[in-house]
Amino acid sequence: MSHNYSYQNLQGKSFKSEDLSNCDFSYSDIRGADFTGAILTDADFSYAQAGMKPQWEITMLILAAILSAVSGATTVFAAYEPVKFLIPRPPAQSPNIPEFICFLLLLSVNLALLFVSLRQGIQKAFSIVAGGVAIVVPAIGILAAIGTDRNQFFSWFRAFRTINFIEAASGKTDVGIAAIIVPLAISVVATLIVLATLSLAVVLGRVVAEKFEFLIMAEAMAIAVIATGIVTRNTARYFNNLPSQIGVIALATIFAGVLASLSYYNARKVLAEDENYTWFRQVAIALTVIGGTSFRNANLTEANFSHAILKSTDFTTANTTRTLWHLSKKLDWAKLSQTILEKPQIRDLLVSGDGCNKSYSNFSLRGANLIKADLSRANLKEADLSEATLEAANLENANLTQTQAIGTNFKEAKFTGACGLGTWNIDNTTNLEWVDCRYVYLLEHPKPRTDDRERRPNSGEFKPGEFTMLFQKVVETVDLIFRNGIKWTAFIQSFHQVQVQNEDIQLCVQSVENKGDGVVVVKVRVPLEADKFKIHSDFVKIYDNQLKLEERFRELEGWRQRQEIENANMKAVIQQIEATCKDRVVMLNLDYEKDCVIVKVQIWSDGHRYPVKFEGKLPDATEVVKNYQDWREVYYKNRDGSDRIKPKPAATRHSETEHKQILQELAVKFKTKFNNWLNSEIFCPTVNKLREKLNPNDEIRIIIETENLQLRRLPWNLWDFFDSYPKAEAAISRTAADRAIKLERYRTKIRILAILGSDSHLNLDADKRSLATLPNTEVVFLVKPNRAEFNKYLWDEQGWDILCYSGHSSSKWDGSDGWIEIDATEKLTIGEIEHALKAAIARGLQLAIFNSCDGLGFARELANLYVPQMIVMRELVPDIVAQEFFNNFIKNFAIGESLYVSMRQARQLLQDKDFYFPCASWLPVICQNQAEVPQKWQYLAKPLDK
Fold it and tell me: Which residue(s) pair with 516 in the sheet?
């Protein structure tokens, strides 16, 4: 639901787990606000101020001051312990040589520790000391245990007894080796504490405000120098001359100042995101986000954080797909665990938009928002740009070798001079509309001993739209190009050998295309992650060797025998193509039985003739059906006449905003209840079996078979099961199915009969334009025909492949019957044109599309005539939604996508209409005759057997 929170003080507010899609938080103060688990899709946080509330900032400053004071006080121990060996004790007047050596030892150890921390990070210094302690402490215990008075040699080890270390800690100096080990331990531990506390104090001060960074440092330095000088002065009174006394005091204070300065230098490295200080930086950030704004686990898809202040904000595990970070401030002091923003280089790119001449090779930029980013001359080799948006981005001269770009939006991007496009990974979800490109190179480097990088086009420049036409296709294939025809025996043997060499990769022939002039293209389907270049090169090498062997074979065998082998191999390839073209079918037969729904599952897959069968149970569906009816009742109110059904007077009317709000709330409630029902404990075993049998890359037709009208009406595409299968789509079916007897026919073009019926308040010209531009079609438009004219055209001897109806329609409340309005005054039921429809089906009618309202009633009647496939709207449909759906569906279907994939893509594209027309993507549904196999566009105009 959309709310306006802009310019508001929302400090400390809790929006935990709320749906705040499309809400406006621009210029608001969200310090300390809790958005944990919230849905913030398309939310606007531009110029918002996030972070800690003022009281938490004061707490952090106090903590920083305490840590600074601790570091200053601890510096005294780190500096004084080595220097005290230079201070004489009565009756001596000056330190002796052993004491001077002890001073050098302690000083050297501390300096070595500082050097390690500067070069390899504080955590490395801690790990070295921890390792030393793990060795020294047990060793001291062992030496103390073997110390005894009975043996002169072992008697020396008595110096390692615990009492000696206790006396050394109390200040005694006549306890042997313990008098050296204890000061050394104190000095080392003190140095580590100074390094950690002062670095952390400086970082905390910097996060709150930059000016406090220097105050924190000044506090620590003052305490360290002054306190060290005082302590050293109080113990240096035994010097017999003043210069020596002053020298020792100066040495101690200098060492204290150096230690504090180097600790501050460490803090600066933490601030600069030095990779050696990553762990320490994470600890500092973990402290600064306490009491700060939280977006943990939130859905920030396409949210806008441009110009926002984001310090002390927790984005851990948030969904940041296509989130806009342009010119946001202090994002480096937010907690970004398990997001693409963890890497400083990526974070800088998303904030500044400047990636010119920089390397992002092997980086994950999945879901990044790089609108208008400058990536000219950038190295994106093997980078993952999947689901990212680079709309209007500058990719001129960029390296796109092996770049993953599945679902990436390159609309209006500049590609001139980009290289490596021969190996980048795109598919039909990659948007290349209106790309600005003069030329590109398919290769990253020239071929050996040439300067050929395979320029496209080979000469001249791309004309508008040519780049998109060249690359916008499904590329989950390796194209094998044969310029002098195919030798099928060599092909089969070579292909089999490549399959053996790549046994962990599923390879299958998808299609064979004759391009003329002896040029044949064989498309081999491969997984997305496969090395297409290797597969292609392996095949070419093996195939060339097979051709050489065949030359010898041809000399020994007769031509007739050779032709028989060729024909057999050709048939094998065709059979493989047919097998790979079969998609997977899941049949769910639903039947009420007492207080549950019995589910009988059948799965056809892997080319097997017989299905896999098993059963399951769903809980009683009464509550789910009631939730849908509640939603449907509100949905039918406040209609404005723009639906493809004539408006009826409403008993109760709400404002448009109130109506949308209520409808969206009921939609969320129904979707939740619906998925809870389908994910119920008793049905989980059935779902798990389904997942075992299905592959996420498969095209899957899931057919809901039931005679229960309420279950047929439910929008099954909302089942979250479909989220794991991007090429799966649901259809509904009656339990009875049969194939109508078809007459043999042959047509060179796809024939479409388009009925444009009653158009009150409708724009049917949009549907007409969508049909008029289709390739290889013969479209006959009947505008508001009378009953006789409609019948006459249905009886046409040439037959029709597709029947389209656009206009007003309706069904009875129980979905048992329906009618279409062919003009302003005449309604037509299916029963009134039953015989004409049967004739059309016999002559090859494959698909009936009713782009009109409330179509489940006449779909039920058409199913009795055994129409192969139908597409209808399950409820009222706004005119704009109907136009958009029909255009997207018929466009995808005409370019070769399957009926079910085209349906899913067209439905998903309706989701951007949900704000204005809630639940628009719920409306279209396929009604499938189980006895028929859906045909792709290119096979509609082929001859059919009897």
Answer: 519
